[in-house]
From TrEMBL:
Keyword set includes Transferase: no
Signal peptide: 1-47
This protein's UniProt keywords: Hydrolase, Signal
Protein's recorded name: Triacylglycerol lipase
Amino acid sequence: MDPSRRSANTTVQLRTRPRAMTALIALVTTLGLALTLLTAAAPPAAAAVPDPTTASLEAANGPLATATYTVPRPTGYGSGTVTYPRNSGSYPGVVLMPGYQGTQQNLQWLAPRLASWGFVVINVGTNTLTDDPASRGRQITAAGTQLLALGNAPGNPVSGKLNGTLGAVGHSMGGGGVMAALRDDPRFRAGVPTAPYYPNQNFSAVTDPTFFLTCQSDPVAHGNSYAVPWYTSMSRAEKLYIEVPGDHLCPMTGSGNKAKQGKWIVSFLSLWLRADTRFSPFLCGPVRDADKNNTSLVTRWMDTCRF
């Protein structure tokens, strides 16, 4: 529309707009400008993370120095060790959940790796070693709640380090718990269920980005039994499915190719919890093809690229 051809009615409305409305618009504009300046003045956590490379992502630890903190009074779960970046800034939180008969040792390899790439990670021990997937899902939620509370409470090492975004990684029944948390708790925005196990469940309602990591020779939770049907049913989610050689223990500490698994998990959570698109090429496109097409490394790969 040509601005010079406004109707007379429009002109009258503009001229007679109440002074109160004019003042309100001015106030909103001022507040918006202030918010913009505050946002610009706060450096994103991603600024502390240098550009990733294949070599840096496949190293045992990332570029940031880390420290650990033992949760003094776990609420709703058995135990918790927080690994966090020493750098200033706020970061996404990630809950690690073990499988049946598992302990924090199950995913201990992943905690410092994620933290050194810009995450605050709580590695959880369950209430009992035999807790079922439903209970592990609730404990993921409880650990996430307490992690965020620690970030908002003064007097502990992670105070001010949580930005309110949550993700989760779990193994076996813990992987089933990750799926339950994604389905039932909207605070969790991305998840990595590894060799996930949860019989008779429908996760078609999950819309958050999900990375299924499964093991080709898994006699307990083969991808065809759980992860693949879930992947197929989740029609509204961004998804990644990678099957690698090994048995049910392949995602655990001391098993499997941790250089590759770590690169994929760090890249997936960096992309979807921090919106850091620098990590996307390691999951989609030519850069990842060396992994995807290596049959000794990957026995099945599915995705919803391009994300």
